[in-house]
Q: What sequence folds into this?
């Protein structure tokens, strides 16, 4: 599922929307610093929309299954490079272990 993340710089606020239309309707054009037309024409798939006041980013949500597949793929790549034991990361190289 794709979501739009709005980060207001000052004061720092983060809002998440399921559509660009919802984001636009919930915020004044003066807050966004752009017109509805300009935001609708922006290529969010390639670039975030960034100004001195805001950042708007289009992101894909991740499920537990997605994370497990990513970690498994990373482990398989590390195994092929000789950096991992079969089926598990070496403890010191476990991605995201410090989070």
A:
């Amino acid at each position: 599922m794709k979501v739009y993340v709005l980060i207001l710089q000052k004061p720092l606020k983060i809002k998440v929307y399921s559509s660009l239309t919802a984001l636009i309707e919930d915020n004044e054009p003066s807050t966004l610093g752009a017109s509805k037309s300009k935001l609708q024409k922006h290529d969010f798939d390639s670039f975030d929309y960034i100004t001195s006041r805001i950042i708007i980013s289009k992101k894909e949500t991740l499920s537990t299954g997605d994370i497990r597949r990513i970690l498994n793929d990373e482990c398989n790549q590390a195994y092929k490079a000789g950096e991992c034991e079969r089926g598990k990361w070496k403890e010191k190289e476990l991605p995201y272990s410090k989070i």
